[in-house]
Every structure is written in C-alpha cells, then in structure tokens.
Amino acid sequence: MDIILVPGFWLDASSWSEVTPALVAAGHTVHPLTLPGLESVNASRAGIGLRDHIDAVVAAVDGMDGPVVLVGHSGGGAIIHGAVDARPERVARAVYVDSGPLAEGGVINDALPAEGDEIPLPPWDAFEEADLVDLDDGLRAAFRARAIPQPRGVAYDQQHLTDERRFDVPVTVIACEFPSSVLTDWIESGHPYVAELARIRDVGYMDLPTGHWPQFTKPAVLGAVILAAVER
Q1: What is the residue range of 111's domain?
Q2: Would the N or C end of the chain have less CB density within 10 A of its end CB?
Q3: Cβ atoms 222, 192 nearer than 8 A
C-alpha cells in the first residue's frame, strides 16, 4: 500500500523518519511530504494557503497507481481531509494523528500569531500542558532547531469541501492528548468540534497516550499504531 504522510505545522517530511521503519518493514511504500513553503527556513511563504497544501497532497495521490492511505498529523488532518474530498475514490483510509477532519468553512488555527506571511513556532508556554507531555527538554530543543515557519494562509484560510463521498472513506483517529472516549462523548453530545467526524460512516479509534507530537515522543509506537490502522 502507498502511504502518504502529511506533517503538522512547522515540520517537513523528515519529521516522520523515526515512524516509517515499521511501515516499510511490513512491505508498504511510504511517501512523507514536504509541503509548499516548508522546504527551508528561507523559502518564500507569500501567497501560500490551505488549498495549496491540499493540492500538493492531491498531486501525490494522483501520482500513485492504486488506492492510497493518507496520514495527517495535527494541522495535516485538515489537509488530508481536503484531499479526501477531492479524491474520495482513491483513498482507502484516512488516518488522523491527534487531529481530525476539518468541516466546510472551518480554519485550522487563526489564533496563531503571524509575522508577515509566516507563523514561527511559538514559545512553549503558548501551548497547553497536554500538548507537551513526554516532550522533554532535549526533544523540545531538537524540535525548535528543525522547525520551519508555517505559511500563514494555511492556518487562517477556510476549508472548502464539495463531495459528500468523503463521508464514505474509512477513518482511523489516533488519540494522543486525550483518550478517544472524549471524542465519542463529544459526538454523542453533538459538540461542533466533531461535527464533521460524526458524519463519517466508518470511524475507528486507537489510543496512543502522549503529547501532541508522538512522532517525536513515541515514534516507534506511532509507527506500529499507523500500521495497525493501515492493515485493519
């Protein structure tokens, strides 16, 4: 199976490097992506928006011969959902790593402070304690050293969806910061945060207790959990 890995904010394809061995060993072909504007700290981020990142994932899907699995971490979840909407017939499963599908009109996070066309990685005290679980000082330093400013438009732009076949694509949610039972409780109560997820017909949940960046805090476990989702 071809597995396309979409990183979250401030990260490029290399952020998946410690996650992919389990997938490759199982015979899958992995395609970690570096999205437009994330090529380097010196890359231009002017004019790059959410649709540009979705289009980059769609182009990767179109470059494969058969069905694909899309994996999106954090803000990458909104991006893969846009790609599912664009190519529902090509996606065998969408896997959301501490993330979920973003509904029509939603934005990933327009509260992140921007500097011109880009959003630098904020200071650690801007994050919730749950985000930072298991992210020790060494991992924080390594993350900050590799962090690339995020194009502002990707965080601020509205999601636009057109194809209701997206609700037929099977989904796995890997819950990290809080248990999946919280998500199912929200769905049962009609919480708007999970309104799009609630409309998907085939959803499975897997718990991986850690902070918001399991590719750094528990990469081998994340690889095994993604593998289990792919082979489900």
Answers
A1: 2-230
A2: C
A3: no
Rounded to whole angstroms, the Cα distance separating 27 from 172 reads 20
Residue the block writes with tokens 């490029």: 12
Positive/negative CA dihedral, 30, 197, 229, 129? positive
Pairing of strands 68-73, 91-97: parallel
Q: Output the domain CATH number for residue 164.
A: 3.40.50.1820
Give the C-alpha separation, 19 to 39, whole Å. Answer: 20
Backbone φ/ψ region at 199: left (φ over 0), alpha (ψ -120 to 50), beta: alpha
78, 50 contact by CB (below 8 A): yes
Nearest to 73 by CA among 230, 225, 214: 214
pLDDT in tens, 160-213: 999 999 999 999 999 999 999 999 999 999 999 999 999 999 999 999 999 999
What domain count does the chain have? Answer: 1
